Amino acid sequence: MKRLLVCSWFFCFLVTAGSAQTVPAAQTPADQASKRVEIRKLIELTGAANISADALRQIIEPLKAGFPGVPEAFWDTFAKEVRSDELIDLVIPIYDKYYTRGEIHDLTLFYQSPVGQKTIKVLPKLSAEAIEAGQEWGKMVADRAMRKLKDQGYDKTSENRVIGPSGDRVK
Questions:
Q1: Each residue's pLDDT tens digit in the chain (171 positions)?
Q2: d(Cα 19, Cα 130) in Å, to the nearest integer?
Q3: Is the model's pTM score more than 0.70?
Q4: CB 127 within 8 A of CB 13
Q5: CA end-to-end span of the chain
Q6: CB-CB contact of 127 with 10 (8 Å)
Q7: Residue 170: helix, strand or coil by DSSP?
Q8: How many other C-beta atoms are found inside a 10 Å radius of the C-beta of residue 41?
């Protein structure tokens, strides 16, 4: 599940990388079709849809454990139904909404560059480590807050009762 979140975050990052909302100029149908071809090329270049599809396939095992009565044939069919081209088709209009054709071109150039290729390879690991660091940080913040509450005399002794600084019970 954690991998799915990381992959989803990676996909969202790629969707929004360098995003500056722009209002597209009126386009002819041919220009629009050409732009969508370029968007597909960008998405395929980054591998974002494949990563998301792979992550979806990986959650099958935990789902199987939660639904032991479901026949194996269902899970086989489910795995075969995961097609990244469908996801790409759903995402193209989103790219189209937020990026101009020139920006799509610039992003494609970036992801074709050595640093862009490195970004594609490193980002899933970087994201996973950043999520772990964020979880650790959240625990540290919560621990500090709890210590401060205890130092001020608040002590949660049950789910419904908190003892305040004067020793009074506060709900």
A1: 445 444 444 444 444 444 444 444 577 889 999 999 999 999 999 988 877 787 787 888 888 889 989 999 998 898 888 888 888 999 999 999 999 999 999 999 999 999 999 999 998 899 889 999 999 999 999 999 999 998 888 876 655 555 566 666 655
A2: 21
A3: no
A4: yes
A5: 36
A6: yes
A7: strand
A8: 15
